Fold this sequence. Notes:
single chain, mainly alpha, 7 helices, 68% helix
Amino acid sequence: MFGYDWPRLHAALNDLPAALLLVAVLFELASVMLNRPTFRVVGFWTLITGAIGGVLAVLSGLQAEEHIAHGEAVHRVMETHEELALTTLGIFAVVAIWRIVREKRMGGTERGVLLALSLGGLAVLIVTAAYGGKLVFDHAAGIPTPVLEAEMHERAEGHHHHGGAADDEEHEQEAPAPADSASGGLPDSAHAGEPAGGHTHPPGTPPHKD
């Protein structure tokens, strides 16, 4: 869809819900600590949006799992990531539905329990994200095998293209000094201690023509 396969679509969908759920918890925490009802309202709608986005992220992740070529090690990490993602979604779905039903009738104790549950969901969300990063950066999950093989070949050949002014300066410093063809490849200062401007005579030497 739109040039995205399932792994790429999952990668595009999973960042925003995670950020929204994090912000929702922070707004709820701030509303309790600062006694600002406005923060609670903002956190409520951020939570609802993040939970809906979380559903899309989980569904795309389940599809991505079926379309990623992987071995046993990746499969184990992927299963853990999936379980954590479902747990995260379950926690925040409960919190969202709870707040939809009880938002205007909720007391202080009930809000405290809900905030504790939200903080627990946030902790699971962070671990879920860590396992997602492990899949990509430790196991290259989602990268097609031909692309991965081409990249491995490039690295084996030592093709390092960093670019930039600092890199050019480094290469200039490493380059050997140009040789003086008229002096056998040695700079002028290397010839029998002669200064760069020409040779001199000991004091008292009669003038002569070179």
